[in-house]
Amino acid sequence: MKKIGFIGTGIMGAAMAGHLLDAGFEVSVFNRTKEKAEALVRRGAKWCGSPGECASGQDVVITIVGYPKDVEQVYLGKDGILDCAGEGAYVVDMTTSSPILAETIYAAAKERGIHAVDAPVTGGDTGARNATLSILAGGDEADFEALRPVFSAMGKNLVYMGSAGAGQKAKACNQIAIAGALAGACEAYAYAKASGIDVEKVYAAISQGAAGGFQMTNVVRRGLDGDFRPGFMLKHFGKDLAIGTETASAYGTALPVLGMVLHEVRQMEKKGEGNEGTQALLRYYGVM
Ligand code: NAP
C-alpha cells in the first residue's frame, strides 16, 4: 500500500494528509476549494482535478469531506470514487457521516470488488495535527487490518467496531456524549454568572475535578478566552447531532438531551453562527 488519493483537505484533512506525506506515502489530493490543498502540493502531493481522477490508480482512497451529501456525491456520483477506483482498491470514508450511507457505500463497493471501510475520527483538530486521533472503523476486519499502517500515520487509538456502518455508529455515540458534556459545561457557567460568582474562579475550581474533561479544558476554555475560531464548526456539530437523532429513532430509541442541544445549535446556525467553533454555544447560554 503505497499510493493514496486523499479527498477533503479542510481543517482535519489537511493535517491528516500531511502525516501521510511525512510517513512516505505517495499522496494525491483533491478538494472543492483548490487553495486549501496548495500547502500539501508544495510539500509533494499531486493535485487532481476531480474525485474520480484522485481515486483512479490508487491503492487507497481516503475521504474526509463535510456532510453525508458530500460523501454521497464523491462516492456514488457519476465518475466518482466507485466508478474510478480500481478493483481491489481500499476506499475509506473518515467524514462523520450516516451509518446507513456507509452501509450503502460498502454494498456498492463490494459489487465492484472494492474494499470499503467507514472510519470516522475523534480527537478534534488538535488530534489531527498531532496524529493522535482515535479512528473508529466499520467494514471487514481483514480490510481494517490491511489499512493499519495507513491509520497508524494519522491516529493512535485504532478500534475495529464491527461490520459496515459500525464506525459511524460509534462516532454518533461520541457526538451524543459530547452534546451533553458541552451543554452541561455551558449551563454551569450560565449558573455561575446568574448567581453572581466569578466565572474564572469557577473554571479554576471545577475544571480539574469530576466535571473536567476535553470539552471543559479544550473547547469551553477557548470560548471563555473569547476565541470562537473553529476547531470544530457548529454547523458540523449540528449535522452530527441530526445524524444521531434521526438514526436513534430508526433504531427505536429516544435521546432527549441530544434533541435539546440540536435545537440550540440550529438556533445558532439560523443566526449565522454555523462557522464558529462549538465553544460559541457559551453565547447561546448568555455566558459570553
Ligand atoms: P472542513 O474544514 O469544512 O473540511 C471539509 C473539506 O472537505 C473542505 O475543505 C471542503 O471543501 C471539502 N469538501 C466538501 N465537500 C467536498 C466535495 N464534494 N468534494 C471535494 N471536497 C469537498 O471540515 P473539518 O473540520 O475538516 O471536518 C471534516 C469532517 O470531519 C466533517 O464531517 C466533521 O464533522 C468531521 N470531524 C471534524 C472534527 C474537527 O474537530 N474539526 C473532528 C472529527 C470529525 P471547501 O474547502 O470547498 O469547503
Polypeptide structure, described:
By secondary structure, the protein is an alpha/beta fold. It has two domains: 3-163, Rossmann fold; 170-284, N-(1-d-carboxylethyl)-l-norvaline Dehydrogenase, domain 2, CATH 1.10.1040. Helix content is 52%, strand content 14%. It is built from 15 helices and nine strands. The radius of gyration is 19 Å and the shape is globular. Bound molecules: NADP nicotinamide-adenine-dinucleotide phosphate. NADP nicotinamide-adenine-dinucleotide phosphate (NAP) is lined by residues 7-13, 30-33, 36, 51, 64-66, 70, 73-74, 95-96, 121-122, 124-125, 231-232, 236, 240.
Please provide a brief summary of the model.
The radius of gyration is 19 Å and the shape is globular.
Short key terms for the protein model shown above:
alpha/beta; about 290 residues; 2 domains; globular; Rossmann fold; N-(1-d-carboxylethyl)-l-norvaline Dehydrogenase, domain 2; binds NADP nicotinamide-adenine-dinucleotide phosphate
Write the SSE topology:
Layout: E1 3-7, H1 11-22, E2 26-30, H2 38-42, E3 46-47, H3 51-55, E4 60-63, H4 68-76, H5 81-84, E5 90-93, H6 99-111, E6 115-118, E7 121-122, H7 124-130, E8 133-138, H8 141-146, H9 148-152, E9 155-162, H10 166-195, H11 199-206, H12 214-224, H13 234-250, H14 256-270, H15 281-284
Parallel strand pairs: 1-2, 1-4, 2-3, 4-5, 5-6, 8-9
Antiparallel strand pairs: 7-8
Helix pairs in contact: 1-7, 10-12, 10-13, 10-14, 13-14
